[in-house]
């Protein structure tokens, strides 16, 4: 059983007086930051805010911390250290990748995108049509929001170079079978780009085991600083044109980071792994390898989240005034719940705030997904989302508030 008291002790936000009594249910927009990340960030700015990798101690320590973050995250994800790179955001990382594919692909080549994605893993790729690239859309079921892997078969042929899809949507919430989809794409000769932004907060995945060629997620939604984290597997990364300075072309993790990274935030990302390892040690699930530890942490987090999520889904099913987007069973989805109503989602979120519940309303940059399910984009949805530091009492507070406003 997950020790929620221990978990919450690792997040300074829960000791802040200004946040007392507030139940936080907009974690899909950005999680609270764990103490090890804050400590590392503060230490870097105090002691090591110099140009890294120079031959003096402060600089050497700065570079070593940046390298540590990359290496330890790579270990958790089961990939090589130089297959991990950092950027200002996942959206910006994707735009850089799209430019590389623009240069690499020929007119008449094809890519597959979905209408389930956040715009970050959709818009940049769709713009390749400007250069004669065929863009094929893998569409969700308009009733359920489900992305059926069987529908992918009709879109795949020998012209497809890339398949882009989310690990889970930030409004549908359903967890897509990444390994299965990736295997199908690879069998057809295509690479895959997986948006993991909405999934990674619920347990950093074993990317090596999933087989994804590109895996993207955001540290600021995964208890860390505001950075985009990208895995680019070597065989693809060395094939695509270099997007960085020409003299960095031989460095895999610099090829798709044209701007200088935020040194302090990169270094602070090691604190994410500090936290996950402390979690594993406290709960007695440390593995023999970093990947095994990551898998164990993931499983413990998911078990707790599933238990807390089902009552919210059950409540939503009892309300004729709202439409639950995505699966009604907690095992099949992340704890990100979008509810469509006849009033704007932002208005409902404002009403929840009066009950000390922090939630969000709007389209959440998932306009194509909402449109594909027939949801009025102008009204958007109310979204309530949580992670493993959420308690049963907070869920009950949410349900009481929802009962009052819906």
Order of helices and strands: HEHHEHEHEHEHEHEEHHHHEEHEEHEH
Count of helix runs = 15
The N- and C-terminal alpha carbons lie at a distance of 33 Å
What does the overall shape look like? globular
Average pLDDT confidence is 97
Number of strands: 13
What would you say about this model in short?
The chain is an alpha/beta fold. Helices cover 39% and strands 14% of the residues. The protein has 15 helices and 13 strands.
General description of the model:
The two termini are 33 Å apart. The chain has 15 helices and 13 strands. 39% of the residues lie in helices and 14% in strands. With 406 residues, it is α/β, with parallel strands linked by helices. The model has no long low-confidence stretch (mean pLDDT 97).
Helix/strand layout:
Layout: H1 4-9, E1 23-24, H2 35-47, H3 57-77, E2 84-87, H4 90-104, E3 110-114, H5 123-126, E4 134-138, H6 149-153, E5 160-166, H7 178-187, E6 191-195, H8 207-210, E7 214-218, E8 228-232, H9 234-237, H10 263-268, H11 270-283, H12 290-317, E9 322-324, E10 336-341, H13 345-353, E11 357-358, E12 360-362, H14 367-372, E13 381-385, H15 392-405
Parallel strand pairs: 1-11, 3-4, 3-5, 5-6, 6-7
Antiparallel strand pairs: 2-8, 7-8, 9-10, 10-13, 12-13
Helix pairs in contact: 2-11, 3-11, 3-12, 11-12, 12-15
